[in-house]
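QUALITY CONTROL LOG
STEP: pairwise intake check
CHECKER ROLE: data steward
CRITERIA: each record must contain a sequence immediately followed by its structure tokens, with no blank fields

ENTRY 1 OF 2
RESULT FIELD BELOW
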Amino acid sequence: MTILVTGATGNVGRQVVEHLVKRGADVRALVRDPSKASFPAGVSVAQGDFLDVDSLRKAMSGVSTLFLLNAVVPDEFTQALVALNVARSAGIERIVYLSVLHADVYVNVPHFAGKFGVERMIEQMGFQATILRPAYFIQNDLMIEDVITGYGTYTMPVGAKGLAMVDVRDIAEIAALELLRRERSAEPLALERINLVGPQTLTGTDIAAIWSDVLARPISYGGDNTEGFEQNLKQFLPAWMAYDMRLMGERFLTDGMLPEAGDVERLTTLLGRPLRPYRDFASQIAGSA
């Protein structure tokens, strides 16, 4: 019985592979360029692409469980639907899909709306799936590390509603645990959604205060300017993606990204340990600054 991990060379996917291998799973990794892939011993590598249907068919042959992770790209929705259709044809019923928290709320944000469409397909096609809905990744703030440490300003548009930021390492471990739970179950398991959140819901001011503490100097919050946020992102991201991120930031300001009652306790039980807090990430950055 083989678990296929897509997005295997990315930060989440790579860690999912590592967790699965440590727990004795038979793992296959889907990659575009095998020459650039480095995985633990025993991991088989399948070369392919979501839009190359023949390569997907080959990669999914003999697979029992699929971890579906799609990058934020213009045709993300199409890629996911193609992958799910090929999976169905290959007889794969057990799936763990990485969606996003509030996919059904941030309806005007392209990559949120696309993920919600994928959720609907998974549900209506009757897959035995776990849909993971992570909040904002703590590690996204690596993009502004230099701004925080060099200019004393936290510029992500987090706002005053708060985000339940989650550590990528916790996301990957929970994904691996869910893949193994479904892979090893003798009976079909019902579709389930799990919100992936951090132990705290933090505002922009809260995060600036954490940085002030760990860096031992004042860090201000200046992230409510979503137009400026978009323009800054356009320096290193395509314009469509920068705009997508701006729309997301605007929803952060109006809606926040809030956990539901019991989310933190549920994840703590799944992991058997506390969730990693934002302060741990900030302290690690501060220690290497």
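ENTRY 2 OF 2
RESULT FIELD BELOW
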Amino acid sequence: MKHIYNETKKGAPVFVLLHGTGGTEHDLLPLAGMLNPEYNVLSIRGNVSENGMNRYFKRHGEGKYDLEDLEFRGGELHDFITEASEEHGFNPEDVVLVGFSNGANIAINLMLRESAKYKKAILFAPLYPMTLQDSKDLADAEVFLSLGKGDPIVPEDESVRVVGIFEDRGADVTTTWVQGHSLPQEAAEKAKAWLNR
């Protein structure tokens, strides 16, 4: 997968950056630098194309996920992060998933994978509109969620559903509400304070 790996400090936690629809591996680099400049960075480009726009998995329309492709792409992405951890010598448990929109959605899939050990995520404008059968214990996970009031893509009840996905599995969840489907400075500042508390 096309990606950027920037190592600032050996042994530091690693941000895995996951962009929104139409983005690239460069989009969230400034955010990572703001959240904590001492963390290492693995920023990955989605390898699915939707009308020329990069995504992490296919969909049949807004909020209508191709579940088979989501499962396949989530596995592919998890394998890639695992390989990168071996190549660059970091522990997957030290990863902080940072995603916006489509990137936040694939991050949820990563967190819920039975074999995955991701313990921390910062997710902006997530949407995961499906009934889940798993009962993965996320009691050792911490998640920061930035959710949108009046979001044209994610109805508020779907934002509440995302909170429930993590709370129902025992995760420590912190939420903030912003306007629309966005990643504003105020949400980034709150995520920074949460991360470095």
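INTAKE CHECK: passed for both entries
DESCRIPTIVE NOTE, ENTRY 2: The chain is about 30% helix and 25% strand.
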